[in-house]
Predict the structure.
Amino acid sequence: MSTNDLANYINGQWVVPDTTDLLEVTNPATLEQLARVPLSVAGEVERAVEAASAAFVEWRRVPANERVRYLFRLRELLETHFDDLAQTITQECGKTLAESRGEMRRAVENVEVACGIPILMQGYNSEDIARGVDEIMIRQPLGVTAIICPFNFPGMIPFWFMPYAIACGNTCIVKPSEKVPLTMRKIFELIDQLDLPPGVLNLVNGAKDVVDAILDHPAIRAVSFVGSSPVARYVYSRAAANGKRAQCQGGAKNPVIVLPDANLDTTTRIMADSAFGCAGQRCLAASVAITVGEARHSFTEAIATAAESRVVGYGLDPGVEMGTVISAESKARIEKLIQRGAEEGAKVLVDGRRPQIPGYEQGHFVRPTILQDVPPTGEIAQTEIFGPVLGLIHLDTIEEAIALVNRGQYGNMACLFTSSGAAARKFRYEVEAGNIGINIGVAAPMAFFPFSGWKESFFGDLHGQGHHAVEFFTQTKVVVERWFQEWSRTF
Ligand code: NAD
């Protein structure tokens, strides 16, 4: 064990896990080794569940307004350490500092919304449903919950769930992505300063073994997962088979339709940010642009110019507009998919493969790439690339475009660029996706709205954030009471 090795946080203590299996965490731009993350085994999950189960007994009895006071303090600590956290995200994840700051802002917003739990968690009641009979519905916490995270938003995604889970009276175990465990380590150093009762929040580092131990542990009542669709489906099935609640957000292939009446400059700027922001490693990234009618030529030319002029580099350097992808494997996979697109008949209009970024020659960079005339039914039109690659498809009518969107297997986000209200309404009404953007490129719901997602992009019923989170992290109890006035003694 070296000082660079990360620990777990269980029962209010930093605990060195019982494993010699350690994975290197490197900066994807500089390849500097940042830390080693332990791949914990089932025994560590057992320890965390024991702590979280014991803590739940008293934590659920702490009044909701007292529980959220811990969140008020956490919010202050997150604000105080905001820049340091953003910098850590950039160092381990590769995105730009501005993107990391945006990510942390949404994390803080979720803490703020969860501070409203004393009201959000209220049930409802009806008096005199029959003579002398009242009916009330109360919300109670579930018990121990677990959160399993992907690599692309190490600071934000845990906050789609964690503040709601504990504010509702649950205890919680967080498993960060083993690719980016440092941000959560820093956040737990702040959590350690909250004086939360030990066991309310726990951190277990690791990979598949930890996930499987979570899914099989009988005392864990609910699992929140975000990651790729095959793993989301697996987590959902195994959690459900073991009687747990599960909300599992999966991958995406987000289509954007550009109509001829869209404002070209605004559309191009927003689309470039959507497709190339976070180097395309965003579940809400635009991945396919379907131009309709005359939009074809003007938009193709404009987006190609935007792609070519994007400033790519190390996310901590000033002026950089796009950082790295997460790993050498990811870079190789993206470059292979670009090649596949060419083999399928698409033209590589802007080719971002194998760029040389001065000073960062070994970094995992792929420059913005545009594939023109992607065959609508081919692999590239359907597969999540998760890199800065935008495919262009041309169709003649909005009806054809919506039909193509709805044939896709995913349903995370769909966007439309237009100046027609009628077209916007038709799109919003007919399109099969959970997050819709109209003249918006990344239709990310604010913290007080649920993060929707349909089809292969979501497995479950209740999504993260907002009211859905409150419903997910509570179970309802309906009480029917009869009290006749004539039964009371006169005092
Ligand atoms: P991933 O599925 O590889 O990993 C996600 C988590 O699952 C990690 O914690 C990992 O340790 C664990 N895991 C990986 N393989 C596993 C297996 N076989 N069994 C059990 N657990 C396993 O995802 P990723 O590469 O970290 O993240 C990128 C993916 O996440 C993309 O597909 C992206 O679209 C998706 N994503 C979706 C949303 C959303 O809101 N829908 C948000 C962010 C990311």
Notes: Residues 261 and 420 are 7 Å apart (CA to CA). The first strand starts at residue 8 and ends at 10. The chain has a mean pLDDT of 97.
